[in-house]
Amino acid sequence: MKIQFLGGVQTVTGSKTLVTYGKHRLLVDCGLFQGVKSLRLNNWKRFPADPREIDSILLTHAHLDHSGYIPLLVKQGFRGSIFCSSATRDLAEIILLDSAKLQEEDADFANEKGYSKHHPANPLYSQKDVKEALKRFDTTGVNRWEKLPGGAQFRLTPSGHILGSTFIELEIEKKLLVFSGDLGRERPLLYPQAERIEKADYLVLESTYGDRTHHPSDPLTELSKIVFDVHSKKGKLIIPSFAVGRAQDLLFLFSLLKSRSQLPGIPIYLDTPMGIRATEIFESHPNWHTLDRTQMKAMWDVVTVVQSQKQSIDVMRSEESSIVIAGSGMISGGRVLHHLAAHLPDPKNSVLLVGYQAAGTRGRLLKDGISELKIHGRYIPVRASVLEISGLSAHADQAETLNWLRGFKAAPRQTFINHGEPQSSDALRVKMKDELGWESVIPAQEQEFEI
Ligand SMILES: [Zn+2]
Q1: CA 314 / ligand 1 centre spacing (Å)
Q2: Are 74 and 159 within one domain?
Q3: How far away, in angstroms, is 118 Cα from ligand 1 center?
Q4: Distance of CA 182 from the midpoint of ligand 1 (Å)
Q5: Ligand 1 centroid vs 84 CA: distance in angstroms?
Q6: Ligand 1 mean position, distance from CA 162 (Å)
């Protein structure tokens, strides 16, 4: 049996791991590369294996960096099944359709302005390709073994990262491979805690925050302080947010603040149609989160939803002091762009970063204190305050990851550390050796191991 790392190695995007056993091949996750251009170009390279020879894809969760390459693999001939939880499937549908729509719009825009080196500029895949890919999804329950071709089997176990997210245990030739996907926090805000896994012969472990400890601060108190401050300055608070996960965290926190009278009278706009749809998907999967009906209702009541582009422009042009939650989370596209282009130059406004900002994204540039941000071809001066709440992260930090690893009764024969920038992966590798005595390796792109 062989395991080959085709993405998410020494980076947090493009997660894809190929497992070859006998005549069979399967992929665990099938994510899109995002962030710096050199990474994104990987999406255009020929896929290292023949997609027609891959039997199955096992998907840990719906985030684009784990699912976003699926339509392209189907377009290139993949004809197998895509296994995941039902909540992951529903979220993947909106995430992939949105991804295709953005790519189609970008290609149209480039063709119109004639700035692309490619004539004509093409999207990686279209919404039609996504619809084709969705036919291949096959949902499964958690905590039960499901059969795969060639006598292999797999089991999904909740991982506490986002709605529907799971670990994957994969048994092939009597060997047990465990994939962490993205590991959730020890006490997730909206989800049941990640389950413990006790045994693995081979472990593939994420390391997004392998070198960091999340501040023990209370995000509710921080958020309240930020909102009162913006309100007193009569400014705007723009919150770039992932539509899936982070947007719901924010709605929940704002609803809590409101119920405790810790929110000034300031309108809050949820300006992300995908975020609105993702919140509806929460309601249809009550087993995958810890919110009750009253709490869900309070989340809807605390915001004004903004559906149309015209409404979004009205909110952007309005002088009123307000809070705007808009995608995308790392400011690589979406409606947050026009809000920032309009409001970054005014020092009475603030931008609040609430999620991981990958290298090369506008979010990371803002976080690192850049003085001008390029949006829609224009350089926008950054005079607004750039704030951060790190306590909202959906990924375990170093200590939480080590605690989860302590649930294993014995060290795996081999641990592969993926899904982290090089310094994070390496810090986790060193700490695991020092604290647990586990040896692990950090694979390189396309590196293959016989196991
Ligand atoms: Zn994720």
Answers
A1: 32
A2: yes
A3: 31
A4: 5
A5: 14
A6: 7
Q: What is the CATH number of the domain that holds 196?
A: 3.60.15.10
**19 and 156 housed in the same domain:** yes
Query: How far does the centroid of ligand 1 lie from the alpha carbon of residue 65, in Å?
Result: 7
CA atoms within 13 A on the CB side of 249: 26
- What is the C-alpha to C-alpha distance for residues 207 and 210, in angstroms, rounded to an integer? 5
* Ligand 1 centre distance from Cα of residue 168 (Å): 14
94 CA → ligand 1 middle, Å: 15
- Whole-number Å distance, alpha carbon 175 to ligand 1 midpoint, is 26
Q: Please choose, from the candidates 340, 329, 352, the residue with its C-alpha nearest in 3D space to the C-alpha of residue 381.
A: 340
How many domains is the chain partitioned into structurally?
Answer: 2
230 alpha carbon – ligand 1 mean position (Å): 30
Same structural domain for residues 201 and 100?
yes
Q: Which of 352, 371, 392 is the last residue of a domain?
A: 392
Sheet strands (E) in 59-195: 81-84, 137-139, 146-147, 153-158, 166-172, 175-179
Beta bridge partners, 25, equal 20
For residue 151, the enclosing domain spans 2-212+394-450
Count of residues for the chain? 451
- The answer to whether 248 and 278 have CB atoms below 8 angstroms apart is yes
Ligand 1 centroid – CA 244 distance (Å): 10
Residues 45 and 65 in one domain: yes
Confidence of residue 34 (pLDDT cuts 50, 70, 90): confident
Domain shared by 80 and 207, yes or no = yes
In this prediction, residue 160 carries a pLDDT of 97
pTM metric for this prediction: 0.91
Regarding whether 159 and 20 lie in a shared domain, the answer is yes
Centre of ligand 1 from the C-alpha of residue 22, in Å: 31
**Within this chain, do residues 103 and 127 fall inside the same structural domain, yes or no?**
yes
Boundary residue ending a domain (343, 370, 392): 392
Average pLDDT, the chain: 95
